[in-house]
């Protein structure tokens, strides 16, 4: 990295949208729900898409479907977003000691109780 010409760094961030739909577009998963570094982007995308797919045929128009979708999915998204807060400190540590600790924990995961 010290000799690299094109190295780029960016801070970790979580952007929380006030609404997922805009016009005829609805953002799902990472793009719309900002679950953060801890994951759940794919899970949220699948769940939100499933809920939206159920709302579209039931509504008279897409704005109504989008509003109903948002009211149903927002509580779950809020939980996922709260769980993600602080994950950057663990997943992208800034101190050598924390990097070492994170790496040791990751190495132990296959041996943890409850493994399926």
Give a concise summary.
The chain is mostly helical and 116 residues long. The chain contains 5 helices and 2 strands; from the N terminus they run E-E-H-H-H-H-H.
Largest β sheet strand count, sense and barrel closure: 2 strands, antiparallel
The whole-angstrom Rg is: 19 Å
Parts with pLDDT < 50 across at least 5 consecutive residues: none
Average predicted local confidence, pLDDT:
86
User: What topology, given as strand order, has the largest sheet?
Assistant: 1-2
Name the structural class: mainly alpha
Number of folding domains? 1
Helical percentage: 40-55%
Q: Which percent band covers the strand fraction?
A: under 5%
How many H/I helical runs? 5
Description of the molecule:
- The chain is mostly helical and about 120 residues long.
- The chain has one domain (about 25-110).
- The protein is about 55% helix and about 5% strand.
- A two-stranded antiparallel sheet has the order 1-2.
- A hairpin with a 2-residue loop joins strand 1 and strand 2.
- It is elongated and about 55 Å long.
- The model has no long low-confidence stretch (mean pLDDT about 85).
Element layout with pairings:
Elements: E1 21-22, E2 25-26, H1 29-33, H2 41-55, H3 62-84, H4 87-91, H5 96-108
Antiparallel strand pairs: 1-2
Helix pairs in contact: 2-3
What descriptive keywords fit this protein?
116 residues, single chain, mainly alpha, two-stranded antiparallel ribbon, 2 strands, elongated, 5 helices
